[in-house]
């Protein structure tokens, strides 16, 4: 697990924001294809199947997996696709906590929370 200073996490926000916007777009496309994928899966169980737009569905899945892997490789934890909610592990008083930020917030991280409490336990820095 990468441990970030507040300065390191803030410096990554412009890049991470662009990645999150791309993740949101891919996630929305995936959700819009979900019903067709469900019907194809049900048909496959009965020996039929096939999905109109199946190649596009797979392409979006791969794009989403690639984007989330890139974010993970940076050490950033994606918590919610739709909100663009992320956490950066950091040390506070000798223990690991999470710097918390989501799309729509400002250009600087202003919140943190314990690992166990999640978003509901956010506290100002």
Structure description:
Helix 1 packs antiparallel against helix 2 (54-74). The protein has a five-stranded antiparallel β-sheet. It has one domain (6-124). The protein is elongated and about 55 Å long. It is of the alpha+beta class and 125 residues long. The chain is built from two helices and five strands, in the order H-H-E-E-E-E-E.
Integer tally of domains: 1
H/E element sequence: HHEEEEE
What is the helix fraction of residues, given as a range? 40-55%
- The fraction of residues assigned to DSSP E strands is 15-25%
The profile of the biggest β sheet is: 5 strands, antiparallel
**Low-confidence residue ranges:** none
Radius of gyration using CA atoms only: 18 Å
Mean pLDDT: 89
Number of strands: 5
Outline type = elongated
Strand ordering within the main sheet? 1-2-3-4-5
The termini sit apart by: 21 Å
| SS content category | alpha+beta
Main attributes of the structure:
125 residues; alpha+beta; five-stranded antiparallel beta sheet
Task: Briefly characterize the structure.
The chain is built from two helices and five strands, in the order H-H-E-E-E-E-E. The protein has one domain (about 5-125). By secondary structure, the protein is an alpha+beta fold.
What is the strand and helix layout of this fold?
Layout (H helix, E strand, L loop, with lengths): L5 H40 L8 H21 L2 E4 L4 E8 L2 E8 L8 E4 L8 E2 L1
Antiparallel strand pairs: 1-2, 2-3, 3-4, 4-5
Helix pairs in contact: 1-2
């Amino acid at each position: 697990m990468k441990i970030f200073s507040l300065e390191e996490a803030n410096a990554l926000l412009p890049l991470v924001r662009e990645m999150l916007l791309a993740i949101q777009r891919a996630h929305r496309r995936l959700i819009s294809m979900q019903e067709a994928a469900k019907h194809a899966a049900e048909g496959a169980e009965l020996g039929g199947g096939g999905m109109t737009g199946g190649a596009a569905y797979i392409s979006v899945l791969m794009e989403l997996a690639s984007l989330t892997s890139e974010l993970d490789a940076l050490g950033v934890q994606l918590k919610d696709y739709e909100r663009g909610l992320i956490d950066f592990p950091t040390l506070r008083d000798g223990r690991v906590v999470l710097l918390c930020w989501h799309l729509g917030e400002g250009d600087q991280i202003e919140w943190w929370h314990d690992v166990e409490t999640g978003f509901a336990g956010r506290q100002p820095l």
